[in-house]
Amino acid sequence: MILLSSIIETFETEFLERYQDSLLPSHRQALAAMKHCRTSHSPVMLAQCDDCESQRFVPHSCGHRSCPHCQQHESQQWLERQLQKQVPAEYFLLTFTLPNELRALAWQQQRTLYDLLIRCSWETVKAFTQNDPQLQGNAGAITVLHTHSRRLDYHPHVHLVMPAAAIDPNKRLWRTKKGQDRHRTGYLFNHQALAIVFRGKLLEAITLAGLALPDRYPQKWVVDVKSVGRGDQALVYLGRYLYKGVIQEKDIIACRDGQVTFRYRDSKTRQRRTRTLPGAQFLWLILRHVLPKGFRRARNFGFLHPNSKRLIRLLQVLLGVNPNQALAWLRKRPGLKCRCCGGDMRIVKTQMPPSSIRLAMSTG
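Given the sequence above, the corresponding structure tokens read:
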């Protein structure tokens, strides 16, 4: 497996010379963090075995949310929180895509445009849920912003996972949506109608934010809607890119002659493909998806908001849903095992300088 830190080490100088005028502070911070993640230059932790008391040094991860090494535990915790909110309804995955003509504006005004993209996606499904004859109530949704395509090009879009259900706060009713006839199952809302409303809301929001729209942008926008059953797998897919960057190191398959090759799955054919780029360009492809500092990529709305925990629990009790069943198949975070006896190890000291290892070896 080719480590991203080694690619940064090889191409960093060329990358900084070529892209220095395009880099934001968040890009430089991510580059510095990932360069030293779990390397000989990173701080270390001291682990001790509970059985044989042998000790071992473990390098610290950098903790950056764009690093493919890090945040596995955080991703797991996020997924667990979402699965604990599952309700008895068919789930749908909706994807709201920003047209190509607006991507330059999004890049220049990332914090504003990303926020508007998320909020307008939610406002669109919220309005459709309130006006739907079968639902007529308040919706709930989980949204995750992605800025990349499978080829890692700049492609801002919002994934929204929502149950086909609503709560009527006035009549205190729980409603779910069924197929309109026996031949039409797995239907939530018309994707073309969603796209029209989403377009109007986002263009209006951009104008109200005081930003200038481009001279030309398309009349037809793209919104995709598909059924995802109970929603488990859709949440796993979203959680995969939530904290661990846009590429897994196992998909970096070559680094030679100044070129980096990675593989991806084509979204249309579902076939595996490869892409080869100069090393500096590959780093730019990765770093341009680093979000502004403090920006929340994942958000919950409506009755799936964190403030609605008691309401969700009440629904689960009344409707006979056991949230623990959804968590049963999740793999637990593997513990640190002793190399001598195979026992469990615990961390006894953290944030030690790398020189601690050399000092321990010299005195040992």
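The mean pLDDT is 89. Try to locate this feature in the token string yourself.
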